[in-house]
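FORM 7B - TANDEM STRUCTURE REPORT

SECTION 1: FIRST PROTEIN
SEQUENCE AND TOKENS:
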Amino acid sequence: METSNNLETITYHVNNIWEPVLKLISYNSKIYHQLKLKYSVICDEIVQKKISDFCYKRGIQNPNFIDVKSLDDGNLLSDLKCVFKHDGGNREEFEFNCFARFFYIKNYMERKSILKIFHIDSDIALSKKFILEMNSFKKLTKDSLLLFNKNTTPVSVWGLNKMREYCDFGINEYFKKDLSIHRFCDMDMLASFIENRKIKYFNLSSSNHITGINFIKNLGNDLSILPWFLSSTPEYDKFSRNIPLEVFIKFAKTIQIADNNFSSKNEYMPFIHFQSWSKKVVKEMDKFLGEKF
């Protein structure tokens, strides 16, 4: 079994990848190499080449690549394909991969005997301080589940048993829900998993362990932080699509980077989530942020 106390961080990204996401993955890879911690990316050959080329041109070491094909014996996703229902606003392949990534991560954990893992979406940039704080948790086990709230898969820590239970719930229970009431997505599946199976989890947003986490509470209702905030609703997504790039940039200018840590309006930010259309700002960040992406 795994013997290191360090918490491996993992991202899943296959098929198309565009420059904002390349910047974020390379940024995280740089910080993890500085800290001598492990950052892994499950991806296909095309994505691996694009990340490698991007990092090489900027003198950044690659993350640890995991070939997505190596994790699938041909049957890994067969049960998921049988039950999966597409009712989201994104392409079916994209929606399916939002669920499939957890099956790949589970398989990776099982093959490598990893008891716990830190999962982040590919459109997230982590503060160095937050990475160290997450690695300072002492009693993480195969039954651990750490979340900012009950539907935040983008930044989450999973024990192996909880990851197995979550995938099992997806196959055997989740897609039987009434479509007229729910929109199928991995975040809703997490909320349903917690509610239906009475799952206990550690709430990071109410923890004093993560210093400065109050930025979520203090700035969550401020429009100037919305593009970076975890919360997302169909109404916000529709609203954000209509925000001019100049407005996003104005909001982004409130964010500073010092020693690879983020802050806004004097509030420390553990991470920035460039969710949905806020990715359009990433390509502009070199113009005004102290640390280049």
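SECTION 2: SECOND PROTEIN
SEQUENCE AND TOKENS:
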Amino acid sequence: MKRCRFPRICAVLLLVLRGVPMPAEEPEAGTEYIEIPPSAIKQVLIPQDVYVGDRAELRCLFTGGSIESGSALSGGPIAVPTDTTEFLAISDTITVESGRLSAAGDDYTLIFYITPWEPGAIEIPPFTAGPFLITLPPVVIRSILERMPSADIRPPAPPMLLPGTAILVYTAIAGTALTMALLSAALLKRKQIAGFIRSHLFAARRVRRFLKVLRRIEREGTPSAARYALLSAELRRYLDARFVPAFSSATTPEMEELLREYGGAEQSGYIREFCDISLRIDYIRFSPEGVHEISPEELRRITGSVRALVSCFEEDEKKQQEAEDAQI
């Protein structure tokens, strides 16, 4: 025959449940409680010094007589509800949670987890836990100011400086003042500085680039409409850099108007010759094939005229810039 295992299973379950806190039973009307006064309770805080905002364990030890058979405590620890009116009334001062009451003979242990929000002695109202009506001693919460040697607020101390900090600060102030002075002078002389950059750096770069393209056009083989198209494009790019970026999309008559607007009256002779050359280049580019013979001699004559006119433009700009510098 198979032996019945039901009693053994029940015994194992009973042993497991004895270690789990059981919820406290709701007291019936007219229930008499055993009063536990503050003087009968030994109260321990873990850690010993608790400050505002710290979470701590509040352990209360007292003696209250033997457990009656059939009591809730006879089955192991019971939970003490902390959402009752007594604990909610002091929630702004201290938060009480996770209550548990356990018994060992005539000795009882009550454990709470608390988070205080104010320093000083905090009173917890009387509450019920199992068969007891418990009044705890005040819970003493330390203030962070107690860690300081003096409770008085000290005046603000001057900042601590590393050796050489004063020299570094004064050097930085002097450097800033010098930089501001140089910037002010630069703003006052901005026309002169801008003219220097334009006349010496940018002018040299654009002329160097344009003359390099002219030499490449002259060195390549038989002249063609494509080479004249390259010459026209580079000529417009030079004018964009020399005056304003508006020549790349302009026709030859529009180029003449732009040159007269930005070149000035003193360059009117150069402008007319410049536009005549541009018209000749356009005629060669867009003539039907075979109508106009493209000769190397004519290409060299056109590139030579373009080179001479560019030199005249640059020389006039240099003279104009020198005159403006003399007036400043």
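SECTION 3: OBSERVATIONS ON SECOND PROTEIN
DSSP finds eight helices and eleven strands in the chain.
Helices lie at 6-18, 85-88, 165-188, 190-219, 225-242, 252-263, 268-286, 296-327.

SECTION 4: SIGNATURE
Preparer initials: ____
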